[in-house]
């Protein structure tokens, strides 16, 4: 169950994803938020490099902004299930909670594939999956359809 | 079995790792090399951020330098077994071959933990493990002992 603030933040993630889609980029975005104040610490969307996933970029921005290597009190919101690279990065920063939209059966690394948080000896976050699953899944479908056409 | 050039490159990785150790940093380094010309494309060592692993930094440098998202013809040399984040990043760039030193039973993601290349539907590299395993393992041991003291 998402509370009002989480719904607001997932909607913001979807808005940023749509902006990326309108620019012909992968509609994936991520937000890091301070869970105690609800202040947005950083926002990012997927970049052009295969390594510039929204999650990596938003975590780096948050670490820089807070001058820390730990995001204990922070939550991260992402459009779809993070890949194994991003799931590991999330664990390394000790994020408190991960919210994501649709699952990614092909590329996901949280509840699919290597299920990073079940193997890792890192501090893993609480996971809230399938937030606005249909809407976020449709965004990705739209993007890949447009790429095929 | 390592050929003369691979021995040279692993020795270079060990040299860079020792330099980091002498600066009181994690003794982990990585090199990306063009496998057809043996030219070193990029070098990196672990940075201060928990996300600035040598592998991520060296891959980003190589992608930037070659203005590409694919490193089909390149090999990567690393001090120890990459973590799941870095193993996934290596696969995403379509690196040809991964050489690494000691295995990392606790944090590794290639032959330990989530064994990223066995799950991923990405193009996974050929893996040459345990290159100079004792020497690289000792480097890491030295670092963690110095941290405890």
List the helices and strands and how they pair.
Two copies of one chain form a homodimer.
Chain A: H1 4-22, E1 29-34, E2 40-45, H2 54-66, E3 74-80, H3 84-92, E4 97-102, H4 116-119, E5 126-128, H5 133-148
Parallel strand pairs in A: 3-4, 4-5
Antiparallel strand pairs in A: 1-2, 1-3
Helix pairs in contact in A: 1-5
Short précis:
The structure is a homodimer of 149-residue chains. Chain A is of the alpha/beta class.
Find the structural class of chain A using helix and strand composition: alpha/beta
The mean pLDDT of chain A is 96
Oligomer state equals: homodimer
The order of strands across the largest sheet of chain A is: 2-1-3-4-5
Give the SSE order of chain A as H and E letters.
HEEHEHEHEH
Radius of gyration of chain A: 14 Å
* Beta-strand share of residues of chain A: 15-25%
Task: Please give the alpha-carbon distance between the first and last residues of chain A.
Answer: 37 Å
Count of helices of chain A? 5
Largest sheet of chain A: 5 strands, mixed
- Helix fraction of chain A? 40-55%
Shape of chain A: globular
């Amino acid at each position: 169950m998402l509370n009002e603030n989480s719904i607001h933040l997932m909607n913001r993630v979807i808005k940023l994803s749509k902006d990326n889609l309108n620019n012909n980029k992968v509609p994936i975005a991520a937000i890091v938020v301070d869970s105690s104040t609800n202040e947005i610490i950083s926002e990012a969307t997927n970049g052009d490099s295969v390594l510039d996933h929204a999650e990596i970029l938003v975590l780096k921005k948050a670490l820089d902004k807070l001058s820390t290597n730990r995001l204990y009190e922070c939550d991260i919101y992402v459009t779809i299930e993070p890949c194994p690279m991003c799931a590991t990065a999330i664990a390394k920063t000790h994020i408190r909670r991960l919210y994501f939209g649709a699952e990614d059966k092909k590329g996901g690394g949280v509840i699919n594939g290597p299920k990073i948080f079940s193997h890792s000896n890192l501090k893993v976050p609480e996971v809230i999956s399938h937030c606005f699953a249909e809407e976020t899944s449709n965004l990705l479908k739209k993007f890949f359809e447009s790429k095929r056409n």
